[in-house]
Amino acid sequence: MGEGAARFQLVTAIGVSLCLGAVAVAPAAEGASFDSGPLTYLVDSERALPASDQTVVRQCPDGARLVGGGGSIAGAPSGSSINRWLFGAAPVDIGGDPDSDPDDAFTTSAHNATGEKLKTTSVSICLRQGEGGLNYGVETDVMSTLAAILIREVSCTGASTGGGIRIDGPGADVLIREGYRPSRHEWAGGARKQPTAQNRDVKTVAVCIPNDTRKVRYRSATRTMGADKPRAVKVPCPPDFRPTGGGIQPATGLSADVALLQSRPYDSKDPGKAPDDGWTARLFNSGSSVSVDFDAVCLGPKK
Ligand SMILES: [Ca+2]
Ligand SMILES: [Ca+2]
Fold first, then answer.
1. Ligand 2 centroid – CA 156 distance (Å)
2. Are strands 135-143 and 200-209 parallel, antiparallel or unpaired?
3. Which of 128, 132, 168, 220 is most buried, with most CB under 10 Å away?
4. What CA–CA distance (Å, rounded) separates 167 from 146?
5. What pLDDT does residue 98 have?
6. How far apart are CA 236 and CA 214, in angstroms?
7. Could you read off the pLDDT of 84-141 as tens digits, one per residue?
């Protein structure tokens, strides 16, 4: 672990515990729904209170299944210490449906270590009814007291459309480092924790669509990110393709001292305001300059 990791500060917080099994759904304060082609984008936000955790989750409509999603905490630290971060951004199973697949909602959990309220947003991306075959790979790991970083690759069947990672328990001493697509049928997530933190359960999820159903395109852009400059990078989808997943992968692997602040679909101000044009991600880098791949996964027409 790099020297900069010490700057990932332990902040006392009132934790909102997120059970790693089924998730209860709370109503969101600001919600919007956008239909785009075969997809529905559900965008919800809540204000994370100072020194607190906030979890945002909204269920896909009846008959639709989750194909991907993303989330963010607003703004970016202006100094060299990280003061906000994500510790959960992943598909989940909602208690009450007959299966245990994480096919019901995307959940985003953020920790706010500032003194002001910060908007936390989660986007569930749902494939409407009539299209079967979505399948989900799930792996649960325990990050022991000795581990500072965990990176887990998960596979599923077909072409990966997205995925995510979430860490059980409060968010003051854990964060998401990265999320990316290691191969066509995989998703990967990275978690980081303070060495002093207790053992934590980490769940990583991959979502796949069968190869014979819809076209999937992967797009990426590589940028060199300097320390303490948390700018967002957008990766557009091709025409007739819509974003279902994306994220970041630091090229220097375990030595990179980064945290994910935003990974979600964006709107390019075309008609309709649907966030269906590409993927945007923002990271905070408290170490030295690092090369980062920014990924977008784009779902297209039927084959
Ligand atoms: Ca389910
Ligand atoms: Ca749009």
1. 29
2. antiparallel
3. 168
4. 16
5. 85
6. 19
7. 999 999 999 997 788 999 999 999 999 999 999 999 999 999 999 767 799 999 999 9
Q: Which ligand is nearest to the CA of 269?
A: 2
Assess contact for 113 and 59: CB atoms under 8 A. Answer: no
What is the distance, to the nearest Å, from the Cα of residue 82 to the centroid of all Cα atoms in its chain? 18
Strand ranges (DSSP E) for 93-156? 105-112, 118-127, 135-143, 149-155
CA nearest 204: which of 150, 267, 160? 150
Residues 6 or more apart in contact with residue 98 via CB below 8 angstroms: none
Give 145 Cα–ligand 2 centroid separation in angstroms: 44
Output the CA–CA distances (angstroms, integers) from residue 91 to 50, 57, 59, 149, in the order listed: 26, 10, 10, 21
Tokens 């075959």 label which residue?
133
Task: Look at residue 24 and tell me whether its pLDDT is greater than 60.
Answer: no
Domain boundaries 3-302, CATH class? mainly beta
Report the C-alpha gap between 296 and 15 in whole angstroms.
Answer: 31
- The rounded distance, in Å, linking the Cα atoms of 4 and 255 is 10
What's the rounded Cα separation, in Å, for the pair 298 and 214? 10
